[in-house]
Task: inverse folding
């Protein structure tokens, strides 16, 4: 049987500011990427998100990003490799402090950091080294076919190739920037069909029509997508109908 992990970015509320529907999404996903307090989240939100994940049997991953609350981590920041490495180690350790001795499942960089590292070998390597410093056996979730995957393989860090059911792709396998029309998909049937195709065909159609080959170990649907709940419900149904088992592995 074909197996796939289904992940979502959660724990991104802050204080009285609530983002996403973590409670309901936790009942539908197999792994959660929990914000570590730099781009979003705070100690109380982290604690609550970890508790919900443990109650629902959802694997917990760290979701470190740039120190950019105002821009929600979606603005590029020029940083030294050593700064990025320490930034990653610090945020993973912060989340791990709430997991009550349970080993983290993975690390997935957030937003602009993730997208920049997908194309920048030096930045990708700094992220991988930051993870490796905390735990050399902790897997990285990186964009399929990107520099993140190559960097992890280069230093022997476990890695899982990630695809996005609710984001449009460019011909080079990168994601269409959110500033462009059509970058974020919100139609549940369209997203579900794309997800099945990614798993069964290991490919996706770019926004310009080209076929992009990719490896799919885990599928992401963004928790801050207003249609996230409907998307994941339809996606799970479509995968089940096509004999795909959803598991964190």
Result:
């Amino acid at each position: 049987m074909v197996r796939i992990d289904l992940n979502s970015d959660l724990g991104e509320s802050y204080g009285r500011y609530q983002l996403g529907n973590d409670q309901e999404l936790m009942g539908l996903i197999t792994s959660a990427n929990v914000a570590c307090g730099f781009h979003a989240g705070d100690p109380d939100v982290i604690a609550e998100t970890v508790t919900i994940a443990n109650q629902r049997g959802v694997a917990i991953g760290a979701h470190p990003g740039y120190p950019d609350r105002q821009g929600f981590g979606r603005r590029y920041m020029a940083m030294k490799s050593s700064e990025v490495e320490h930034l990653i180690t610090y945020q993973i350790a912060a989340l791990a402090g709430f997991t009550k001795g349970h080993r983290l499942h993975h690390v997935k960089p957030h937003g602009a950091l993730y997208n920049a590292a997908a194309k920048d070998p030096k930045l990708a390597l700094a992220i991988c080294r930051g993870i490796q410093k905390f735990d050399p056996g902790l897997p990285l979730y990186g964009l399929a076919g990107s520099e993140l995957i190559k960097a992890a393989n280069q230093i022997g860090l476990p890695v899982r190739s990630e695809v996005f059911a609710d984001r449009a792709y460019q011909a080079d396998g990168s994601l269409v920037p959110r500033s462009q029309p059509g970058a974020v998909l919100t139609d549940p049937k369209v997203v579900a069909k794309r997800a099945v195709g990614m798993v069964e065909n290991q490919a996706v159609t770019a926004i310009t029509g080209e076929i992009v080959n990719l490896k799919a170990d885990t599928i992401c649907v963004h928790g801050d997508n207003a249609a996230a709940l409907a998307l994941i419900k339809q996606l799970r149904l479509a995968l089940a109908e096509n004999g795909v088992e959803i598991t964190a592995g």
Notes: The chain is about 35% helix and 15% strand.
